[in-house]
What we know:
By secondary structure, the chain is mainly alpha-helical. The protein has two domains: about 20-55, no CATH class; about 70-135. About 40% of the residues lie in helices and about 10% in strands. It has helices at about 15-20, 25-35, 45-55, 70-80, 95-105, 120-130; strands at about 85-90, 105-110, 135. It has a three-stranded parallel β-sheet with strand order 2-1-3, sandwiched between helices. α4 (about 70-80) crosses α5. The longest helix has 15 residues, at about 45-55. The model has no long low-confidence stretch (mean pLDDT about 90). It binds pyridoxal-5'-phosphate. Pyridoxal-5'-phosphate (PLP) binds next to α4 and α5.
Amino acid sequence: MIPTKSSExxxxxxxxxxxxxxxxxxILEAVYAVxxxxxxxxxxxxxxxxxxxxxxxxxxxxxxxxxxxxxxxLALQAANIGLGDEVIVPANSFFxxxxxxxxxxxxxxxxxxxPATFHLDASSVQNHLTPRTRAILPVHLxxxxxxxxxx
Length: 151
Ligand SMILES: Cc1ncc(COP(=O)(O)O)c(C=O)c1O
């Protein structure tokens, strides 16, 4: 059947089901092990993840937290960003980017993105720099790492 209304046309965007299917057994085993241990906060599994991820990204330390939002907030706090500061975020990011900035008392400043990559556009970032800018918060979207040097 040929769709006649725009509401009948679906363009697949992100296939989470097939991503899950490819590592389903690994995920279920890990979830099962956590449930069996009844150790839901920190502990051996989280420490194991921190060590493994630190090696993977070549960092000295990694701290596992409960959500991406918490990670952003903690990173901003660790950088001592707060009231009166500005942080540049991409205009098309998930809500959490600006939310984390607001939660530490700073002001999110929205810069445009490159329409080819959807990542922060360096010239737009430059146009939004002020003496109050304390950080630029690039977002790596859709499995693609933002390349700041190339954009
Ligand atoms: C770009 C981006 N940043 C932050 C978050 C927040 O992550 P969480 O939902 O784990 O707090 C999301 C969630 O989808 C996200 O897409």
